[in-house]
Design brief:
mainly alpha; about 70% helix
Amino acid sequence: MSQRIDVAKLVPDIYRHFFAVEKLLHDSELPVATLGLVKLRASQINGCAYCVDLHTRDMKKAGESDERLWMVAAWREATVFTPAERAALALTEEATRLADRAVVSDEVWGEAAEHYSEEQLALLVVAIGMINNWNRILVSARVTPGT
């Protein structure tokens, strides 16, 4: 499959603003590992090969273990994630799969709220929204790993 369009080249100002939001997220109080898990899980759900590749590599460079990377797709059964990370992954799944339920359940939100402050929850919501935007742009443009 070849790339359909180079969105970054055609609308660079939009990408510049997206990257500014990404920098704010990475500089925030959200744990880097949690941010990486959120990005990887949403990208898996959305079938964005470019983002799965990118975020797996970024997490590995940041010191993430192979075991944890392998277990993201099966996080519910895995024992390598903290309760806070599990809550972030559950929130990521429900917010990414809105078409299935059209709602993030109170149960999932409540679990996340037990582990994250209101500001951290707001940052998680933005992070989940951003990776879903990235996935949709890159899948639609047919951007492939290594490009």
